[in-house]
Amino acid sequence: MISIKDLNISYNSSSKVIDSLCLLLPEGSIHGIVGLNGAGKTTLLNAIYGIKNIDSGEICLDGKGLTKNEMSFLVTENFFYSNITAREYLSLFKNLYFDADRWNGLFFLPLDTIIDDYSTGMKKKLAILGVLKQDKPIMILDEPFNGLDIEACRIIRSILLRLKEKGKTVIITSHIIETLTNLCDDIHYLEGGKIKFSKEKHEFAEFEKEIFKSIENKSSELLSELI
Amino acid sequence: MSVCPFIIIRLKQLYRTLTGIGLIRFIFLIALISFLGIYVFLQTLKTPGSFYVTGAVLLIILMIHAKRTDRTFLRTHFEHYGLICLAEYIILTLPILVFLIINHQWIAVALLLVALSITAGLNLKIRSPQGNAKMLKLIPYPCYEWKSGMRRNGYIIFSLWMIGLGTSFFIGSVPIVLFILGIIPFSFYDKEEPYQMIIACEMSTNRFLFNKLKMQLTLFSLLAFPLVILFIIFNPQLWYIPVVEYLIFITLHIFLILARYAFYQPNEKPYSAQVYGAIGVLAGIVPILLPVIWLLSVRFFFKSQENLKPYLNDFN
Fold first, then answer.
1. Is B230 domain-assigned?
2. CA distance A88 to chain B (A)
3. For B129, nearest residue in chain A (alpha carbons)
4. How does DSSP assign B114-149, residue by residue?
5. What is the CATH number of the domain that holds A200?
6. pLDDT for A168-201, tens place per residue?
């Protein structure tokens, strides 16, 4: 069980990005985190992965601190060195049992081409292959479906479901709620640095309604003034 | 992930970059590096020179480390982030280390290695404080390169400028500050703007280029003039030093902007522009290269005109 207790993160003394956040994420499940832009999703993931300093609180796996050995992380905007091929990029990650060509059968990437010539979607697929090659028990995926076509989205969904069956834990954010409701075992709605509500699989229909209603309430008044 | 495969891939990356710049530019670059190599070797023969070289190299490495764009990638994918950085920096400084060893400058070697190890472990990120916002308001809107550059480096520029003003009675102070302030704007132009920003100016190619040059020279002159004037007041017999330095940087900035638009590709960082930018910086250190810069500036003016035509042809 990944447990986050009373987590506080701020970028400067006046603005708290994560505010006394508490969250329990069982292992062997897919956990979705949603929220509006700037709600603190990426900051939360960065903190879980350990690349964002926290003000207070703790993040533990079965009572012990999480280490990078146990996690792989797909960031929103992936970085690629210029003038290297996709195969060379994948060779940066150590995993003797990973057959890049067989896995690439799912994505059809030209692995011997320089990455600079890749489209946005191809780069995303390559970054996902990199994360899969790392083969860590916990996968943190920040907006993995951004820029992907329908086919790739379906394939990644299938991969994640199979990895879950193998006991992997996936923490995923997306602003496309439908992708999460079709994939996750639980979804947590982040607002103002806090978990506003969490829903289990059987409550997702109600969850979507709640989110859309909340957004509608916020924007309808201004919209009617503008248009 | 061990360090060796990573370094091999980085070397392959460098090889492809170098082969991509073309044979003539490659020969030119090799000639420049050889010239610089000889100059540095001669400097490392004796003790004060070897320390100056060590200091300059460390400053460059510190700047590279602070401006690394692969920091998050390395931190999220590799456990030995510091070790990878250290290996890269040792390879980068290897020629200098070899020069220092050949010339038995053991203290400088030890200093360089220790400082590199410390630098590699630092989570260094230059970020200007918010107080910078007032300074940014003084820069006109069309000078977006300066706005962006000052947002990143404004704190350093302002501190240096104040140090330069405050110590202008020392002979060496103003020339050194002016040199650093002349080099910093090179980083303002490292990434090309989207073509929409060029079209939005609604100017002919020539007017666009002259406008860019005018804005760059005006803003640099505003920084440089107070330093030059104070230097002349305190050291009237050496008035020509900051004046010549200022004029050299003016020509280098003209070269920089013309090289940028001669190889302009929207939203990109073209290698050719980067290589020529580096040559421009070198010319600031080795003024013997200045005639080459002047000749190239003329060539790049015409090349820029051609290169910008697709975007500004309607306004010509």
1. yes
2. 7
3. A12
4. HHHHHHHH--------TTHHHHHHTS-TT-HHHHHH
5. 3.40.50.300
6. 999 999 877 788 888 899 999 888 888 888 888 7
Q: Is the dihedral of CA A112, A100, A162, A28 positive or negative?
A: negative
Does residue B113 belong to any structural domain of this protein? Answer: yes
- Does the residue A125 lie in any domain? no
With tokens 């090309």, the residue in question is B192
Per-residue model confidence (pLDDT) at position B158: 86
Do residues B32 and B92 share a domain?
yes
Structural domain contains residue B260:
yes
Tell me the per-residue pLDDT of B80-94, one tens digit each, with 9 for 90 and over. Answer: 888 899 999 999 999
Q: How many Å apart are CA A161 and CA B195, to the nearest integer?
A: 43
How confident is the model over B180-210, as pLDDT tens digits?
A: 899 888 888 878 888 888 888 888 999 999 9
pLDDT at position B1 = 59
Q: Is residue B126 part of a domain?
A: no
Average pLDDT over residues B31-57: 86
Residue A75: list chain B partners with CB under 8 A.
72-73, 76
Task: Collect all residues of chain A within an 8 Å Cβ-Cβ radius of residue B75.
Answer: 51
- CA distance to partner chain B, nearest, from residue A83 (Å): 5
Q: Which residues of B touch A92 (CB under 8 A)?
A: 1, 5-6, 9, 77-78
Rounded CA-CA distance B63/B61 in Å is: 5
Lowest average pLDDT, out of A194-208, B102-116, B219-233, goes to A194-208
Do B12 and B55 belong together in one domain? yes
- Spatial contact of B77 and A93, defined as CB atoms under 8 Å apart: yes
Kindly tell me if the per-residue pLDDT of A45 is higher than 90: yes
Pick B9's closest partner by Cβ from A49, A78, A92: A92
Task: Say if residue B114 is in the same domain as residue B148.
Answer: no
Residue of A nearest to B11 (CA): A84
Residue from the list B70, B72, B79 with its beta carbon closest to the beta carbon of A81: B70
For residue A29, which phi and psi values (nearest 5 degrees)? -135, 165
Of B12, B13, B77, the CB nearest to A93: B77
Could you tell me the pTM of the whole model? 0.73
Which phi and psi (to 5°) does residue A19 adopt?
-125, 105
Token pair belonging to B3: 């360090």
Residue with the bigger pLDDT between B112 and B151: it is: B112
Which residues of chain A neighbour B9 with C-beta distances below 8 Å?
81, 84, 88, 91-92
Domain carrying residue B229: 132-315
Using 50, 70 and 90 to split pLDDT, how confident is the model at B99? very high
Total number of domains constituting chain B: 2
Chain A CB contacts of B5 below 8 Å: 91-92
Interface test with B, best of A78, A92, A136 (most B CBs within 10 A): A92
